[in-house]
């Protein structure tokens, strides 16, 4: 589904996707029906599409039309609004997860504690199958785990579940490239799930579960 702006109908119509991509629809002649201009989101400009579709009011000026509308065959306006809001929130969770991992990579324990709940719970390989609670267990690795010269982390296939307005869960694969003290390059892979809770308008990580398929080097 695309939300379009038409600053110059004679030349082109720029359409912005909800997935934050951008495409350009070549103009031609926009469909005019009942003294309105209709722009199709999917590239089709037929009367049938217009008559069977939902429309979104569009800001713009035209000498030949009272109003500009977008043809949206698949979703109603309310569905589009909800989808856009959900997409933005999912991106926010991904960004918070990236910030947390960056704090880990740089050894920024203070930054890590600001993102995590003080009573954070976790299952991770270092805990040998036990559920750990609080920050002390993790602080040990911040204080003693600086054995790598360089780190680069990639989050693969992040999938976010939104659970109301104040909770979310993200699952992803985490690839970490690092150089050891001997200058040898290594890659570590882990599968992670993190639960986020929004308190006082701030997201905090309240639980995570990490599994590893390669030898661990004290990741959090």
UniProtKB/TrEMBL annotation:
Recorded superkingdom: Eukaryota
A Pfam family reported for this protein in Swiss-Prot or TrEMBL: CaMKII_AD
Domain Calcium/calmodulin-dependent protein kinase II association-domain: 89-212
Gene Ontology MF annotations: calcium/calmodulin-dependent protein kinase activity; calmodulin binding
Protein known as: Calcium/calmodulin-dependent protein kinase II association-domain domain-containing protein
